[in-house]
């Protein structure tokens, strides 16, 4: 049987007994460290990070996007392409100034004043993301908004990151930064089944929310409330925990309903979710499956 380490964790699958196949459930903190070795590096004192592309989309009223490579979750419904699961063969390294220049050029061409770092998990390389935020901060008059999207694992395990982000994303100071924190689960087993993570890591996004609140950061929480993935009991548990941090955190929740992106369909089918995928594969799912890299 093939031996797995955190570098070869792809996406969750069910075995013949209906349980997650090894290496799932997995440790997202260990996966953070191993993925950093692939997607983050320092050259001549400059913190580089892997991205696949830069583009504009209509969310947030129109926003320039840097699409980052690598994640420390393995969500079954994830819309991100195979660069999430095979970060070693996708993307190219960019410096903070290159990322910033690419985003600014998209903003200029598309007449936008908003930008974000999205894709997989943008906070995997904290020095890199803070260097980008510093460049944005220096040109703050060019921006209405600059968003960092995260699942909170890094913020929840590296407490000082929330304070660093708050320098550029403050509830009180005149900054343009903002953190979008995704919380995927509120109960142990559903959290595991959705993210592929061991249940004991359930609390990390809530710890991240507390750290961001205590640091005075500008942030909001996005919660998957799609009834195909989140029960009313789990939703109520999440909202109660957010309300315990502050009522405004609970009031500011962005509720997410999930679209069947092609890569998500492949991942969902692998864990037996034909209730979502349907019994037959459509052409987009077949194309995504054909494009999936093969491990030796």
CATH H level, superfamily name? Aldolase class I
Q: Report the principal-axis shape.
A: globular
CATH architecture: Alpha-Beta Barrel
Number of strands: 9
How many structural units, i.e. domains? 1
> How does the helix and strand content classify structurally?
alpha/beta
CATH fold description: TIM Barrel
CATH class: Alpha Beta
Radius of gyration: 19 Å
What's the overall average pLDDT, rounded?
96
State the end-to-end CA separation: 13 Å
Order of helices and strands: HEEEEHEHEHHEHHEHHEHHH
Q: What fraction, in percent, of the residue positions are helical?
A: 25-40%
Strand content: 15-25%
Q: Which spans have pLDDT < 50 for at least 5 consecutive residues?
A: none
Question: Layout of helices and strands, plus pairs?
Answer:
Layout: H1 28-39, E1 40-43, E2 46-57, E3 63-68, E4 92-94, H2 96-110, E5 114-119, H3 126-138, E6 145-150, H4 153-157, H5 160-166, E7 177-183, H6 188-195, H7 204-215, E8 219-224, H8 232-245, H9 247-251, E9 254-256, H10 262-270, H11 274-277, H12 283-290
Parallel strand pairs: 3-5, 5-6, 6-7, 7-8, 8-9
Antiparallel strand pairs: 1-2, 2-3, 2-4
Helix pairs in contact: 2-3, 5-7, 10-12
């Amino acid at each position: 049987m093939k031996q797995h380490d955190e570098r070869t964790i792809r996406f969750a699958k069910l075995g013949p007994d209906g349980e997650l196949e090894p290496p799932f459930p997995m440790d997202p903190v260990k996966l953070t460290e191993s993925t950093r070795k692939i997607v983050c590096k320092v050259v001549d004192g400059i913190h580089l990070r892997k991205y696949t592309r830069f583009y504009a989309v209509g969310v947030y009223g129109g926003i320039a996007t840097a699409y980052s490579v690598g994640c420390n979750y393995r969500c079954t419904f994830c819309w991100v392409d195979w660069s999430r699961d095979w970060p070693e063969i996708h993307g190219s390294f960019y410096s903070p100034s290159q990322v910033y220049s690419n985003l600014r050029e998209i903003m200029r061409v598309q007449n936008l004043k908003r930008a974000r770092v999205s894709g997989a998990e943008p906070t995997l390389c904290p020095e890199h993301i803070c260097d980008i935020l510093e460049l944005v901060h220096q040109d703050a008059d060019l921006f209405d908004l600059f968003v960092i999207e995260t699942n909170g694992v890094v913020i929840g395990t590296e407490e000082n990151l929330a304070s660093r982000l708050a320098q550029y994303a403050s509830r009180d100071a005149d900054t343009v930064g903002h953190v979008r924190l995704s919380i995927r689960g509120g109960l142990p087993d559903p959290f595991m089944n959705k993210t592929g993570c061991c249940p004991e890591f359930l609390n990390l996004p809530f710890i991240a929310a507390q750290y961001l609140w205590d640091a005075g950061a500008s942030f909001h929480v996005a919660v998957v409330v799609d009834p195909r993935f989140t029960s009313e009991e789990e939703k109520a548990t999440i909202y109660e925990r957010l309300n315990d941090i502050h009522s405004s955190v609970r009031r500011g929740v962005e509720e997410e309903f999930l679209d069947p992106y092609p890569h998500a369909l492949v991942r969902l089918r692998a864990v037996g979710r034909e209730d979502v995928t349907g019994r037959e594969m459509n052409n987009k799912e077949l194309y995504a499956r054909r494009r999936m890299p093969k491990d030796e």
